[in-house]
Amino acid sequence: MSRCARCGRRQEVERAVRLSHSIAMLTNLPRDVLERILSFVQLDSTPAQFARLALVSPTLRPLVDQLLFRNLVFGTSGGVRAFLATRGGDGPHAAGDTRVLVLRKSDVEAQSGRGSRRRGAQANESCSEEDLLRLCSVCVGLEELHLEGPAFSTLKRRQLGFASNLSSLRVLSIAGSGAGFNLHTIGQILQDLPQLEDLGLKRIQAFPAALKALPRPLCRLRRFALHSSPTVSPHQLEWLLAASIQADSLHHLDFDIADIPPSRLGSLRWAATPVQFLHLTSSNTRAVEKLAQHFPSLSTFAFTTSDHPDSLILLSSCGTSAKFQQLVDRSEGEGGLHPLELASALLYLRRRGQLASLRRIVLPSHRRLDPAYPVLAEVCTSLGIGCDTMSVAASPFD
């Protein structure tokens, strides 16, 4: 055997040993921790990819099997029909045991930009309105429903009552696509979900007359997210959050502002006062710098921007909350806070007796390459503030 072949063989053995050790470490975790990790993996994988994990270890097989039916992920109408044909009744792994349902746009349709209507391609079509209705009629124990891109453009008024079967639903997220969900349709769905705690909306169409004829929903949200929906007005936002405001239940707020002057955010100043965790995405420098001051209970402010906000103004705004503890910059490229300016602002405000509660600052990972980052780290250490970096893809509330 040649020297190169021996080196290649040795590297393969070393990789196999490392993989074996990693699997051993994973399977030795407490069951609840391992189950939570696998749940995250499942939501980022196709069902076929996730099912292959059962082949990795005998320890993983029962957990993978359990999660495959407790957390359902469908991208095609054919997958829904196959599931209902085999699991629609009683017995182990019945549809009634499902807790999380995710409906995604078909990969075939996403790549082509339109659904195929050929008879032989029907199994690859995205999930339809009828698929949603059938699943919700049998998966009555659902706690989370995520609609990620299917174009439910023909959902009829008589079909909007599907949520009345879901008395245990706590989390609802809808990412519109094309002529999919509009805000009025969502308002009708919310009428049947007074127990909802977490609502996430993305790419939602909102017309001026939307929601006007509907009573305000009774759900007391703990978390609300709104993205890529510039036509949603402050008045409509107030309508969505009315019960949550009255009950002081809203703790997490995550939204973006696209070309909207801060003056249009007047209703938000009082609408989200119980918020403790705020994540803002905006290219509007004034919004990034000053929005935090309207949240007196704020403990964490995370933001994403392509611009360069003033560190002193932003920190002063955050400091209006006596509970403020963490600032997270998730901006990419040259956007966001510069380490040297941030260090200077921290020193100035602390000398004035402000930001006494601040405990942690998190910057995007590429800021470690900035020559001024060690200066910021040293300043933070001297002030008793943690200074970390993180990938912009990670959760701002980790």
Automatic annotation (TrEMBL):
PROSITE patterns assigned to the protein according to its UniProt record, in alphabetical order: FBOX (PS50181)
Entries under InterPro entries matching the protein: F-box_dom, LRR_dom_sf
Name of the featured protein: F-box domain-containing protein
Every F-box domain range: 23-72
Pfam families per UniProt: F-box
Domain of life: Eukaryota
